[in-house]
């Protein structure tokens, strides 16, 4: 099956997509990961992507969809999870066209919802290890030692964009981009909204219930 999981920053998409990959063996399409992997491969497409990234310019959709189509072709016989992609209406329409040309379709678009208050609380308490990249939350998943990484004992840091002011701006951008996307998938009859308040396990049970309906039908 092909599924989309999306939602605002701080809602827990990354955690839930990892859990879905483990339980259902989804291969995950995450735009940031795919771009970094392609650059690391030093392919022709990767070299072009690197030029855009190094200059601080957004990678054009035309180039992005070369990667999308290649990824789908390579994994068409597996369960595919689109993690936070597409991000806007134009990308959603192009993805549908690409899938249609390959005689495939997106079966469910799941939006994770969390109140702005909870998102701000989560993100302002998020910390990361600059050495190994481990992520912590001082409220929900704190390190064993005060503000130090459990793995390498390095002092934890906060991302610059995890300040309340910047978080609010990111949420506003998300709402503007995503509102048409929600309407689009509603019109296709595949949209569902998931309440992401609660523990990781509670949220995963809600998502699993939806996925089980499609997996068992195949």
TrEMBL record:
Pathway recorded for this protein: Purine metabolism; AMP biosynthesis via salvage pathway; AMP from ADP: step 1/1
Subcellular location(s) per record: Cytoplasm
Reaction(s) catalysed (UniProt annotation): AMP + ATP = 2 ADP
Key words, A-Z: ATP-binding, Cytoplasm, Kinase, Metal-binding, Nucleotide biosynthesis, Nucleotide-binding, Transferase, Zinc
Binding residues annotated for AMP, in chain numbering: 36, 57-59, 84-87, 91, 159, 170
GO molecular function: AMP kinase activity; ATP binding; zinc ion binding
This protein's record includes keyword rRNA-binding: no
InterPro entries in alphabetical order: Adenyl_kin_sub, Adenylat/UMP-CMP_kin, Adenylat_kinase_CS, Adenylate_kinase_lid-dom, P-loop_NTPase
Known EC number: 2.7.4.3
Region of interest: LID: 125-162
Positions of Zn(2+) binding: 129, 132, 149, 152
Binding residues for ATP: 10-15, 126, 135-136, 198
Residue ranges of domain Adenylate kinase active site lid in the record: 126-161
One Gene Ontology cellular component: cytoplasm
Gene Ontology biological process terms from the UniProt entry: AMP salvage
Residue span of region NMP: 30-59
Enzyme class: transferase
Assembly description: Monomer.
Function: Catalyzes the reversible transfer of the terminal phosphate group between ATP and AMP. Plays an important role in cellular energy homeostasis and in adenine nucleotide metabolism.
Domain notes: Consists of three domains, a large central CORE domain and two small peripheral domains, NMPbind and LID, which undergo movements during catalysis. The LID domain closes over the site of phosphoryl transfer upon ATP binding. Assembling and dissambling the active center during each catalytic cycle provides an effective means to prevent ATP hydrolysis. Some bacteria have evolved a zinc-coordinating structure that stabilizes the LID domain.
Record-stated family: Belongs to the adenylate kinase family.
Name this protein carries in UniProt: Adenylate kinase
Gene behind the chain: adk
